Amino acid sequence: MGTLHPALLWLIIGVMLFLLEMALPGFILFFFAVGSLLTALVAWLFPIDLAWQLALFIVASLVSLFSLRNLIQRRFLDTETVNDDKDEPQAKPGDKGVVCAAITPPAEGRIKYSGSFWRATADENIEEGEIISVVHQNGLIIHVEKV
Q1: Cβ of 1: how many Cβ atoms within 10 Å?
Q2: Where are the domains of the chain?
Q3: For the chain, what is the largest distance between any 2 Cα atoms, rounded to a whole number of angstroms?
Q4: How far is CA 123 from CA 26, 41, 118, 119, in A?
Q5: 6-55 pLDDT, tens per residue?
Q6: pLDDT bucket at 141, cuts 50 / 70 / 90
Q7: Secondary structure of residue 130 in the 3-state scheme
Q8: What phi-psi label fits residue 54: left (phi over 0), alpha (psi between -120 and 50 degrees) or beta?
Q9: Buried b (16+ CB within 10 A) or exposed e, 65-78
Q10: How many CB atoms neighbour CB 39 within 10 A?
């Protein structure tokens, strides 16, 4: 029984790295698997020494890592850092609520709206227990007015 061809060894390493990427979080091993598969292809096409194979593996892995990581993460993992309001609950203007802690401008108070407690601001003093109407929402703070 002879030794395995270097291209086959790089192919095995690449497949193992792909499998490990599926099991481990981080999305890094994928790029080393790409480097390994590229090295396998070159080792299969050209008879190069082990030192050149290792150099090609390192260069190919790092180039793919630094050039493609952000692109692939945005595409597949949806890691947008834009301030989207998708997960943030939205208050509808005109909806009613009750003041739980008095609102004294410019300080915030608290209201109960839609079954939850919210920080709230207003243009006028509103006492605890009064009914309010939602004017608009700014992040997690609701601006209200007396009804």
Answers
A1: 3
A2: 6-77, 96-146
A3: 89
A4: 48, 70, 17, 14
A5: 999 999 999 999 999 888 877 788 899 999 999 999 999 998 999 999 99
A6: very high
A7: coil
A8: alpha
A9: beeeeeeeeeeeee
A10: 28
**Residue 134 contacts residue 144 (beta carbons within 8 Å):** yes
Please give the structure tokens belonging to residue 29. 């091993």
Tokens of 94: 């005109």
Record: fold of 96-146:
OB fold (Dihydrolipoamide Acetyltransferase, E2P) (2.40.50)
Distance CA 105, CA 123 (A): 6
φ/ψ (deg, to 5) at 10? -65, -35
Q: How confident is the model at residue 79 (pLDDT cuts 50, 70, 90)?
A: very low
| Alpha helix (H) residue ranges in 46-143 | 50-72
pLDDT at 125 over 50: yes
Identify which of 34, 32, 40 has the alpha carbon closest to the alpha carbon of residue 9: 40
